[in-house]
Amino acid sequence: MEVLSVDLPMSSGCSRTQQEIAVEIERTHNLALSMQFSSGQLLSSYVHHQGMPFGDPDFNPPIQPFPGVPLPTLSTTDWLGLTDQERLQQNASAFSNLPVYLDSVKCQQMDLNPLETELHRQFESSSLRCLGLENNLKSIMSSLDIAPGPAVSAQPLESDNSFLMKLTGYYICHLFRDWVNRCEKDIALLTKKYPV
């Protein structure tokens, strides 16, 4: 299937060579690939520790978006219609806000499941990986002279209801995994345009 987005022009003032940019894109793609396993693992661990109905195979509520972290899913036509700039801007925005939400869910889990230190560690690691991916994405954008998109800040999670806290955490873990999968696909397209 033909990709509809066009190659981004290199700025004549850019100090990085196309080869250096290609290496950075490949490194970012490798990070997204490595995060696919850990993001799926976080979601599985989270569900495992929340009790019923979260562990029920039929439990599949529609995922809710959050400020700064929209739903990453698009139809194939809409996804292919995005430009490289739009893809990078959307990913950079999502991964700049995901750490705020992951940290909030970790704090909630420290209250709800205080003994599950491995789960808490997974949230910390996921948050740090998001920051690393965000930095890589912004570096690629800078190299390609792409301006950051409009900023949408994450909003603190607030709830006193334990079920709603668990449900919100479920949404966040799902969004994290789904954005990692989306990012991997988006950067895979760039690796074809900027081969090492």
From TrEMBL:
It is found in: Secreted. One of its GO terms (cellular component) is extracellular space. Its main location: secreted. This is Cardiotrophin-1-like. Belongs to the IL-6 superfamily. Pfam families: PRF (PF06875). The keyword Ligase does not apply. InterPro entries: 4_helix_cytokine-like_core (IPR009079), PRF/CT (IPR010681). Signal peptide: none annotated. GO terms for molecular function: cytokine activity. GO terms for biological process: cell surface receptor signaling pathway via JAK-STAT; positive regulation of B cell proliferation. Keywords: Cytokine, Secreted. PANTHER family: CARDIOTROPHIN-LIKE CYTOKINE FACTOR 1 (PTHR21353:SF7), PTHR21353. The keyword Magnesium does not apply. It comes from the Eukaryota.
